[in-house]
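Quick one:
INPUT:
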């Protein structure tokens, strides 16, 4: 049984598209794709937006034990980051790099505000997990499932999804869960027959966080709905789909 992508060398290939273990050199592609998908709109120059994307990618990588990317030659098409709750971490240096990126974000007013929103989002996800009883293993978490817009319609999302399911099955992990939100193709998970374990509407974020929205009216403005989905691996095997979500 292998739980670290650094040792998981088997690759899937169909035509010119392949799935292989992620390496640190893939980071710019992941950050660029995340940034293109979820830009910080208040940042026309793009510096804070790219740092925010790096923050989220590194946040997901901190607990990742299996990281796989889909490529067409050198062209990045998609990624799955999986935390199995056991085994070696793929990128131990991710935590230190996250601290460095967060210091850069904190150096400007917009960056600090963006970081505060990101951390609030992540704390909200943790609280929702606890309410669902997901803090207890052996559930694995699919921390990031992202498909580039240029890969849509090529079966890349379905291949990454099945690659993850087959790995979980071989690893003897029966259940997994993931976070998503209303900026993503939430219907994909409904179509897959996964169970919606939690839902938090954007209008309810402030109350859930115990914060008075009048203190900073723009802090929660336009924030997405959050969902947690869970599923049994054996139920999901044999189902394919395409998704470009967080």
């Amino acid at each position: 049984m292998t739980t670290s992508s650094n040792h998981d060398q088997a690759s899937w290939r169909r035509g010119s598209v392949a799935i292989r273990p992620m390496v640190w050199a893939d980071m710019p592609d992941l950050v660029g794709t995340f940034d293109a998908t979820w830009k910080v709109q208040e940042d026309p120059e793009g510096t804070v937006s790219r740092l925010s994307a790096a923050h989220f990618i590194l946040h997901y990588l901190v607990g990742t034990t299996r990281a796989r990317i889909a490529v067409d030659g050198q062209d990045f098409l998609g990624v799955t980051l999986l935390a199995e709750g056991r085994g070696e971490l793929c990128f131990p240096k991710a935590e230190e790099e996250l601290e460095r990126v967060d210091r850069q974000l904190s150096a400007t007013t917009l960056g600090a505000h963006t970081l505060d929103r990101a951390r609030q989002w992540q704390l909200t996800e943790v609280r929702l997990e606890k309410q669902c009883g997901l803090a207890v293993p052996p559930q694995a978490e699919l921390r990031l499932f992202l498909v580039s817009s240029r890969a849509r319609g090529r079966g890349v999302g379905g291949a990454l999804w099945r690659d993850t399911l087959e790995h979980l099955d071989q690893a003897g992990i029966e259940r997994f869960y993931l976070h998503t939100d209303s900026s993503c193709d939430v219907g994909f998970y409904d179509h897959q027959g996964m169970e919606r374990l939690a839902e938090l509407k954007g209008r309810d974020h402030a109350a859930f966080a115990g914060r008075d929205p009048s203190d900073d009216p723009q802090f929660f403005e336009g924030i997405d709905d959050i969902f947690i989905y869970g599923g049994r691996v054996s139920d999901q095997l044999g189902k394919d789909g395409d998704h470009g979500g967080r």
